[in-house]
């Protein structure tokens, strides 16, 4: 009789402990996910609002969801750089989430940063792929440096080395290397809303589609449009019409 009574008690205790463990893991993981999302969002804001001096200010009403928040960015002198918001759209195999920066006149795109996507590897994922900055010279440097102890300092003094470095790296004149950005995302820079038209052939006035990934390309464009629309609506630009 005692054993029959003990089994339910033991089962209840085990279930309770398991529930506590699962809850603790969920809360810990949830907080880490939030921190990661915040980190990604902040990095994206600095990417799409070049020239800002500090983390952009949220200008949306209280309790606005993260995906609907609008941000205002200023430079070191307090001058307005522009506004930013995130947008999303359904791609070929995933939701595509993108952060977009718009200039202070709400006309031209300052930059975009695709925050998340799970499109087809080798096709849709090209929207986040960076072109390699490796040159024949840099590859040779890496190879001989490992095998024969070549003096990298002397090689860096060669005109050929400086020429290649100037092309891909130090363009700012302050010694800091310029981050290489995905070509697909870079083509959005300085475009207006009405120029967000997908073209299957290279066209500087439109958005050139990723070969073999037209659906993903269209989704990325729609996500950018979605972000711009949020900014326009939030700032109450009644004279602006979505065409």
Automatic annotation (TrEMBL):
One of its GO terms (cellular component) is plasma membrane. Coiled coil: none annotated. Residues 91-231 form the FMN-binding domain. Gene3D superfamilies: 3.90.1010.20. This is Ion-translocating oxidoreductase complex subunit G. GO terms for molecular function: electron transfer activity; FMN binding; oxidoreductase activity. It comes from the Bacteria. Belongs to the RnfG family. Keywords: Cell membrane, Electron transport, Flavoprotein, FMN, Membrane, Oxidoreductase, Phosphoprotein, Translocase, Transmembrane, Transmembrane helix, Transport. Its main location: membrane. It is a single-pass membrane protein. Its cofactor is FMN. InterPro entries: FMN-bd, Ion_transpt_RnfG/RsxG. The keyword Membrane applies. The modification FMN phosphoryl threonine is found at residue 214. Its EC number is 7.-.-.-. It is found in: Cell membrane. It comes from Kuenenia stuttgartiensis. It holds the Pfam family FMN_bind. The complex is composed of six subunits: RnfA, RnfB, RnfC, RnfD, RnfE and RnfG. GO terms for biological process: electron transport chain.
